[in-house]
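Q&A log
Question type: sequence-to-structure
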Amino acid sequence: MSGRTGGPGGAGTGAGRPAEAAHGPPEPFDPARLDLADPYPVYRRYRETDPVHAVRDAVGGAASTTWYLFGHAEVAHVLAGRSFARSSPLTARSAPVPDGYVTLRRVVENWLVFLDPPRHTRLRARVTPPLGAAAVAALRPRVREIAEELVAPLARRSAVELVEGFAAPYPLLVIGGLLGVEAERWPWFRAQALALQQAGGTRGDRTPALLDEAERAAAELDGYFHRELAARRTEDRGDLLSALALAGAEDPSLSGSELAATCTHLLTAGHETTTGLIGKAVLALLARPEVAEELRADPGLLPNAVDEFLRHDPPVQMVTRWAQRDTELAGRTVRRGDRLQLVLGSAHRDPDRFPDPDVLDIHRDSGRHCAFGRGIHYCAGAALARAEAEIGLGVLLDRLPALAPGARPGVEVEYAPDWVFHGPSRLTLTPASPP
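Response status: OK
Response body:
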């Protein structure tokens, strides 16, 4: 079996759709109009007609420009370039949190992903070793235990809700164990994580009520981690929380707010991407039973397959950078203070970088993808995320009846209205109907 196939599941090519067939310059790009189940035909249209695409708006009477980058070369250049950063040089703000939500803004703006040097450098140096390759290798047996414990009850059910039953708790229990938080609290952590995510500036359903809920969740998580860090200043429990508490004692420049926010970031944003990756990989395998069979027969293909899942349908579709100085991209002048939205989902389907990009090919060299970023903001948890996906998908292929050879379950999918953290919010598998 070749492991190569297009078609539905994991977002196919969408060939023949009107958006793809249209000619001439496209209208201003609006992520809110994307088909969340398959945004790739729209990406293709912009990549082919206007890959460095300007959307101009007026905020508070002042003109502003957001650039959407659809090509791989431009996206990779900005991710690694020193002329671009996570915060605006005009406002010093990085996180998309409105005024009036004090705790939410303070917590999110202290997340590692939103920091620039030198704060980013100091904090990342403390977070990286416990998430590095050696630490993750030692953690793999426990990761497998968690996956098998979660799949066991699912294997006995006729209908399975895979997000709530596996894809969400699995990475949350892994990172929770690494941090040293109580496993029995995972439903509470999951609820707080969803409250924070649902207030993201990229969601199409963000309302004042959701922002109020996110403010509450931020306050609860912030208080929890402040207390846990304080407890570990006098009791080293050998977990990541203890390591961060020690880091704060050794380096007074690391504030308690930064350390508590880092814990919140690791627990929430870190697990959400793996949840999306697993959900979308399962959808891709359900649509491609020959690929599932190949992976089941040769689990040694899983590490490369995980990178191809990340390339083909990444769980983070867009990331933001801000221009720190005037520069040029593909002949377009980008001004200091302009915002750049790097459309990773489009960059990964760029045929100039990946031949036959709409084809899921678990044998291709897809390691050049940008799913974990590049440069100083390359994801500190990349090794852990890869291990979680590899082990989790292997266990699902081995144990879940819906993925067994010859199984053709019914599939019901819902996507959250979020065009950054992208993936199924619900994925229900039911027994196949009789012929």
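Response note: The first strand starts at residue 4 and ends at 5.
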